[in-house]
Design brief:
This protein is mainly β. The strands form three sheets. Strands 1-16-7-6-5-4-14-9-12-3 form a ten-stranded mixed β-sheet. Strands 2-11-10-13 form a four-stranded mixed β-sheet, with no helix packed on it. A two-stranded antiparallel ribbon has the order 8-15. The relative contact order is 0.28. This is Ureidoglycolate hydrolase.
């Protein structure tokens, strides 16, 4: 199956008969994030230098092994991750990535087939249409303002991913998130009243990205609540 192009990442096709799957939002703890990643209190918690940032060695094509301490020397790239709403659409721009494949439509505050105008203050959830994973390394998100955020995550189950694998996690104030290589994820979600925000991001420099288009493969949008209190 072909991947998602940079053009489609900004303008996906959403049919009028698309289904909606509601996701429950849970408060993230390291116990709940087991096999996915863990909470951090500073970007310095997870670096290549301290041995805690995972870089996957380059895959070999034959029976010979990589020479020791090679195949993982590309290290990480880092930069700001801008998250912002424009009307009823949530976008992200990842400045850690030096190509133009760094601008994404994360989701919708209203079903695209609904022609009714919705005010930003009335948006209570986001409808997400895609997710992805990075086979080459982990990824770190840390809010520069210390504010809470929401992240949708699934374990590294490989390519046979389904909506049922996913959980929406509420990351409490003062914390960031580190996820392991291969973990399915999106960027992060915020309520329009908090837009725009900037996060510090760090990830493997190769930036391999493998995606699922929930609409194309399952005719489904995932609806994620944007308030932890309202979700209780």
């Amino acid at each position: 199956m072909s991947g998602i192009s940079k053009e489609n990442y900004l303008n996906p096709i959403i049919p009028s008969d698309v289904k909606v799957k509601d996701m429950r939002l849970v408060k993230a703890t390291n116990e709940l994030l087991k096999d996915i990643g863990y909470l951090i209190t500073s970007p310095d918690d997870v670096t290549v230098e301290n041995g805690k940032f995972d870089i996957v060695p380059w895959p070999t094509k034959g029976w010979r092994a990589l020479d020791p301490n090679t195949g993982n020397e590309g290290g990480t790239t880092e930069g700001s991750m801008d998250i912002y709403w424009e009307e009823d659409r949530l976008y992200a721009k990842n400045h850690a990535i030096t190509t133009d494949s760094n601008h994404y439509l994360l989701g919708y505050g209203n079903l695209p087939s609904n022609s009714n105008i919705i005010e930003p203050s009335d948006i209570s959830s986001v409808f997400i249409w895609s997710s992805d994973y990075h086979p080459d390394g982990g990824q770190l998100f840390f809010p520069t303002d210390g504010k809470p955020f929401i992240s949708t995550l699934a374990p590294a189950v490989g390519d046979d991913i389904t909506p049922d694998h996913f959980t929406a996690f509420y990351i409490s104030e003062g914390y960031g998130l580190y996820i392991y290589p291969g973990v399915w994820h999106n960027s992060v979600y915020i309520h329009p009243s908090h837009s725009p925000v900037s996060l510090f991001g760090r990830q493997g420099r190769v930036h391999g990205r493998i995606s699922v288009d929930w609409v194309k493969e399952f005719n489904t949008l995932l609806r994620v609540p944007l308030s932890f209190e309202a979700n209780k």
